[in-house]
Amino acid sequence: xxxxxxxxxxxxxxxxxxxxxxxxxxxxxxxxxxxxxxxxxxxxxxxxxxxxxxxxxxxxxxxxxxxxxxxxxxxxxxxxxxxxxxxxxxxxxxxxxxxxxxxxxxxxxxxxxxxxxxxxxxxxxxxxxxxxxxxxxxxxxxxxxxxxxxxxxxxxxxxxxxxxxxxxxxxxxxxxxxxxxxxxxxxxxxxxxxxxxxxxxxxxxxxxxxxxxxxxxxxxxxxxxxxxxxxxxxxxxxxxxxxxxxxxxxxxxxxxxxxxxxxxxxxxxxxxxxxxxxxxxxxxxxxxxxxxxxxxxxxxxxxxxxxxxxxxxxxxxxxxxxxxxxxxxxxxxxxxxxxxxxxxxxxxxxxxxxxxxxxxxxxxxxxxxxxxxxxxxxxxxxxxxxxxxxxxxxxxxxxxxxxxxxxxxxxxxxxxxxxxxxxxxxxxxxxxxxxxxxxxxxxxxxxxxxxxxxxxxxxxxxxxxxxxxxxxxxxxxxxxxxxxxxxxxxxxxxxxxxxxxxxxxxxxxxxxxxxxxxxxxxxxxxxxxxxxxxxxxxxxxxxxxxxxxxxxxxxxxxxxxxxxxxxxxxxxxxxxxxxxxxxxxxxxxxxxxxxxxxxxxxxxxxxxxxxxxxxxxxxxxxxxxxxxxxxxxxxxxxxxxxxxxxxxxxxxxxxxxxxxxxxxxxxxxxxxxxxxxxxxxxxxxxxxxxxxxxxxxxxx
Length: 700
Known about the structure:
- This protein has about 700 residues and is an alpha/beta fold.
- The protein has 27 helices and 19 strands.
- The strands form 3 sheets. The chain has a 7-stranded parallel β-sheet.
- Helix 15 links the parallel strand 9 (about 360-365) and strand 10 (about 390).
């Protein structure tokens, strides 16, 4: 195969590599301010007040946001990982080493119920996941000895669950290895920011309530719960392209860049299994990370317990709503992604806002931002008879009263990011005729259970739906009846809990098999010191990589000749690498790598610093982890005559990779390098010219 170098103008010098950027004043200022802000970030009430104030001043908010994001890549990986991290081992080998150190403390039980740590926000936190957790725990307690793990000052469980032992997150961090299994409830909010460090140390089944995790990761990074969590997750999930785009977006003040990328791959890879609540969320994993990311993801519906009471008249009396009022409600926080502007426009365009016996209530707190101010302005500009109001945040009893009192629920979404709307299920659970649009998981509901608009609907379509449901009480009754029947068939906690148990059983069996193999390896090797234990971890990591494909294939580009002191990228390597790193492929990650010849034996590491220089990234000097390679990965050396490549071949590294299923590809640039390329051993030789191709043919 002939690969032509990029054309250069006659006499033009090779382009110089980009110089590393000097630390900006913003980045220098961010660190002390971030340290001062961390006590604020750890207090939910103070944090919410600070955000409410900042969001009223968009320019100030953007400056503060850019400042804290500028702090995100300040320390090398080894400095962050502490005693648990061994620089000479790959990430996979480090994870195995941590497990080997605790295997003797986690012997499997021969009989009896497993000891399960349940890590989640719990009541009275204002979190749908806290409510979700109590519903699920009601069903799981009969099948496991459950201990609760929470990072909050107060926990108030229902009486039927008050007997469950409660552990702090700090206690669990030290003692988590003693459990048979761990179940994490992970969402994209500050309430979950402590979980990332726990999941890295004590892997378990993760219920991924939100596929995009930038909000929780940024808070973990800025609060100190997991320093650099966002930047590391962004890089690991999406590579150099995302880091560069994120830096550029943050520097320009364009929006909140942590919302552009899911950054959830470390969670998916580290979990023993993952649970999501919709096929939409599972598809997002394949879309962002390739088909290999879905192999250990199970879809279990978001459970809903049937309401204890349904007393429409009493609920309306308590809320001061007339018996003959046609009441439309939208539940949950008012926010841009819930299309509140479109709902208000549809209401004011309809006949309903002119009728005194029709009312629209937004049952939730308004958004603390210019968007929320615009919502209030739209309501003020409506006619005096429009009968629109924002109820604000309500307690559970009032929330349930609105569900019983309403005639129609309207739950709209845009830019769904893998979450499942609890508010939609609440409306359906109370038998409301519910209007949704086909965005994300809401597209999966059958037509007879919801009134489903197109994802990108016209406001006139929503107006028509409201008016028709006003005129047709029988249609409302049937939609509500079919919605309840759907939940009875698939969404009740007992049924969902059985699926949970299947996932937990599978994950526990898989983990037990791995641990049994590791115990056997420990018995055979009988390591006498820490160095021997580390060598065993590396051997086990290589064996696992040979058996299991990675989540995504890697294209490993050898830049060994560009990392030596004083070395620079040659024009061809720089041009090819820039082009490769600019590609966006869910199933293939481009990773610059270099041979570390100071190690014994030599090993390849990520070439983060060389790539950062080439791309002009703003990060400081990075630690560069040892590579984990898997069957299906692709190794490419842009110069078959490079000394580092010969050293890798001589050490047997490339032959070992080929035996593991890695394809080795070498670019032969000159006819005189053809023989050297053949002696290295490769699956494919690429030719820089027709002359090289002819030389290779003659030697064949």
